[in-house]
Amino acid sequence: MPATPAHADNPIVQHIYTADPAPLVHNGRVYLYTGHDEDGSTYFTMREWRVWSSADMVNWTDHGSPLSLATFSWADANAWAGQVIARNGKFYWYVPVRQRSNGQMVIGVAVGDSPTGPFRDALGRPLVGNNEIDPSVFIDDDGQAYLYWGNPGLWYVRLNADMISYSGGVTRIPLTTAGFGTRNGNASRPTLYEEGPWVFKRNGLYYNVFAAECCSEFIAYSTAPGPTGPWTYRGTIMPRQGASFTNHAGVIDFQGGSYFFYHNGALPGGSGYTRSVAVEKFTYNADGTIPTMNMTTTGAPQVGTLNPYVRQEAETIAWGSGIETEVSSEGGMNVGWIENGDYIKVKGVAFGAGATSFSARVASATSGGRIEVRLDSASGPVVGTCTVGGTGGWQTWTTSTCGVSGATGTHDLYLRFAGGSGNLFNVNWWQFAGGTGTGGGNVLTNGDVENGTTGWGVNGSGTISRNTSTVRSGTGSLSITGRTSAWNGPSQDVTAKLTNGRSYSTSVWVRAQSGTPSAKATLALTANGTTSYLQLTPATAVTTNGWTQLTGTATPSWSGTLTNATFYVETAAGTDSLLVDDASLQ
Asked: For residue 491, how many C-alpha atoms fall within 13 Å in the half-sphere facing its CB?
């Protein structure tokens, strides 16, 4: 991919070409599933699917490719537009692929235990197929699931509760002009429906958003009183625009807002075969209709801010220039192929009263270079510079730390990379630290559990230990076993670190070692002989299948002298063993 100017935040991924967005909201994050247009494509040359996620709609984490054509031994080409849905504690990814034995397009289904996979072929064969494409999946309020797809037709089946089989036959939805608009000059396709259905329900009304009338396509929609119709055409959502002759939509609600995902050809080298996913925020009209909107380079506004005092993956990016990503030997992905002048922008970083140091996990098979920590632009003020030396390999990791001065308040963060010629170094993650008593610092010690169990104890009964086999990031997480009550859990004494009446933000990642308990973070405050309990995060279900982030904001206050303050992670009920990682109270 060529380097791109930091003019805005759309498209939302800049280091590869992405297409056919399928967003999913899960546990306070948006997971975005896309296709991958290969560089220089002159056809829909697509061999894998990719996953991204964001908690704020602007900083997107690259989770790599947990699904590809190779997942399906019976498929040989065309990793085209799919969609993921959660059910039964699992994640089902429906994708169109070409069946090797007959060259026909069919729908396969993969299943994973977490939204980022890995995914495996659920059946070892196609789920359904009639040489048409673009599956969309929807679960109605009564639990009945539907799979829709089609180009040139529009079809559906009723999925069974297992999500990998269906009951009854394949049903064709009548494409009437009343239902899908009138197309002129094409007797074989009398309606505007082209492809790419996206079906969802809102306030009792069913919506089918689709790509209309190639070529070039626009995005239109229809509504119905039921999941299978009858449909009524409602008009245009996004007109023909954007340097790609196709478009493909996905619609979600997240954190009180509504979002419309689409693709275009806006990146350098972009075209109808080298596309990029973008997003706009919108508001439904009072009558439930969807307003017409245009593509922008601005994109959606940020939801909240980003916390720099917990470990952030280097591949969490609002805008990147010149960089690439790859699988990291320490888990997840890392940023690589870094050359002099490349940079990463992270939007809306809340430094609070001030950061005092910056650390980055780095590796270099050459002589390294420098990370310039800048604010507000790639040429903005430098608040710190970290030197990166050679480590003996591109996956031989060490942590580089440097002092920071002048990083206060909320700013866009630019990590600008500098050095000699060629590839300089790789970056896996980064994290700031604040001075003692500053508004920005994490009051928890060793919240990332990279220094054994230092700083951690047990609230009540149980045994803590450092786990190195199941981690959210870095090389270790905190294991708590042997709990005998729901309130037992890993804890820290924060008595000397709290300010009365000050607001604190909590972020802690939790994973169950058994069961599906609801976990929460709590603060026990003892003043003048009386103990009170402040819930720091809502109780949230956690599973053994992946990490769940607990977040919240609360204001501890007390009268008299504070004699004890204990931060701890507990469950709403039960005594299941837990894993905890990347905890912060700031």
From this structure: 23
Give the residue numbers marked as catalytic. 20, 194
Each residue of 52-90: b (16+ CB within 10 Å) or e?
A: bbbbbbbbbbbbbbbbbbebbebbebbbbbbbbbbbeeb
Q: Measured between alpha carbons, how far is 544 from 160 in angstroms, rounded to an integer?
A: 25
| Both structure tokens of 414 | 């630019």
Neighbours of 11 (CB within 10 A): 26
Q: Which of 48, 57, 4 is nearest to 265 (CA)?
A: 4
DSSP 8-state secondary structure symbol assigned to residue 349: E
Residues 23 and 32 sit within 8 Å (Cβ to Cβ): yes
What would you measure as the largest C-alpha separation in the chain, in angstroms? 83
| Cα four-point dihedral sign 433, 435, 438, 442 | positive
C-alpha 483/C-alpha 575 separation (Å) is: 5
**Phi, psi dihedrals of residue 254, rounded to the nearest 5°:** -150, 125
Q: How far apart are CA 122 and CA 93, in angstroms?
A: 9
What burial letters (b/e) apply to 556-582, b meaning 16+ CB within 10 Å? bebeeebeebbbbbbbeeebbbbbbbb
DSSP letters of 400-413? EEEE--S--SEEEE
**CA separation for the pair 441, 438 (Å, rounded):** 6
pLDDT in tens, the chain (586 residues): 544 444 578 999 999 999 999 999 998 899 999 999 999 888 899 999 999 999 999 999 999 999 999 999 999 999 999 999 999 999 999 999 999 999 999 999 999 999 999 999 999 999 999 999 999 999 999 999 999 999 999 999 999 999 999 999 999 999 999 999 999 999 999 999 999 999 999 999 999 999 999 999 999 999 999 999 999 999 999 999 999 999 999 999 998 999 999 999 999 999 999 999 999 999 999 999 999 999 999 999 999 899 898 899 999 999 999 999 999 999 899 999 999 999 999 999 999 888 999 999 999 999 999 999 999 999 999 999 999 999 999 999 999 999 999 999 999 999 999 999 999 999 999 999 985 333 456 889 999 998 899 999 999 999 999 999 898 888 899 999 999 999 999 999 999 888 888 888 899 999 999 999 999 999 999 998 899 999 999 999 999 888 898 988 889 999 988 999 999 999 999 999 999 999 999 8
- CA 563 to chain CA centroid, Å, is 41
Closest CA to 138 of 84, 92, 199, 195: 199
* Token reading at 198: 């996206």
Structure tokens given for 127:
């789920």
Short-list 102, 88, 12, CA closest to 50? 12
Cα separation, 247 vs 215, whole angstroms: 10
pTM of the predicted model as reported, rounded to 2 decimal places: 0.79
The Cα 247–Cα 476 span in angstroms is: 43
